[in-house]
């Protein structure tokens, strides 16, 4: 099983690769407000996460996610139910 720290580190790597600005991506980064990603890019990122962690992230769960830390928690929780 992947640990919370490993999940968060992988999410940070994947998100950093998508962000075009010089802004550092941290666990407190607001995925929409701080990264400049549009809705299509965010959905592409979600699909990438689903592939990476072999999970399905429901849209209602994505709506609850604001920060990288929130996303890591959601991925970890969804991984437990897979």
Task: Describe the model.
By secondary structure, this protein is mainly alpha-helical. The chain has one domain (4-81): Non-ribosomal Peptide Synthetase Peptidyl Carrier Protein, Chain A, CATH 1.10.1200.10. It is built from four helices and no strands. It has helices spanning 4-18, 39-53, 59-64, 68-81. α1 (4-18) packs antiparallel against α2 and α1 (4-18) packs across α4 (68-81). The longest helix has 15 residues, at 4-18. The radius of gyration is 12 Å and the shape is globular. The mean pLDDT is 91. Residues 1-79 form the Carrier domain. One of its GO terms (molecular function) is acyl binding. This is Carrier domain-containing protein. Keywords: Phosphopantetheine, Phosphoprotein. One of its GO terms (biological process) is lipid A biosynthetic process.
Any idea what the CATH architecture is? Orthogonal Bundle
CATH superfamily, please? ACP-like
According to CATH, the fold-level topology is: Non-ribosomal Peptide Synthetase Peptidyl Carrier Protein, Chain A
**Shape by Cα distribution:** globular
Q: How much strand content do the residues show?
A: under 5%
Rounded average pLDDT: 91
Number of strands: 0
Quickly count the domains: 1
| Sequence stretches where pLDDT stays below 50 over 5 or more residues | none
Rg from alpha-carbon coordinates: 12 Å
Distance between the termini: 11 Å
CATH class: Mainly Alpha
Give the H and E element order. HHHH
Structure class:
mainly alpha
Largest sheet, in brief, is: none
Task: Compute the number of helices.
Answer: 4
Domain Carrier: 1-79
GO molecular function, one term: acyl binding
Keywords: Phosphopantetheine, Phosphoprotein
Pfam families: PP-binding
């Amino acid at each position: 099983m992947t640990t919370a720290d490993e999940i968060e580190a992988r999410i940070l790597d994947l998100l950093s690769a998508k962000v075009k600005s010089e802004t550092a991506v941290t666990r407190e980064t607001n995925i929409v407000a701080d990264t400049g990603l549009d809705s299509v890019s965010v959905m592409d990122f979600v699909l990438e996460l689903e592939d990476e962690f072999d999970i399905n992230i429901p849209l209602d769960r994505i709506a609850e996610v604001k920060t990288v830390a929130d996303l890591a928690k959601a991925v970890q929780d969804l991984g437990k139910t897979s």
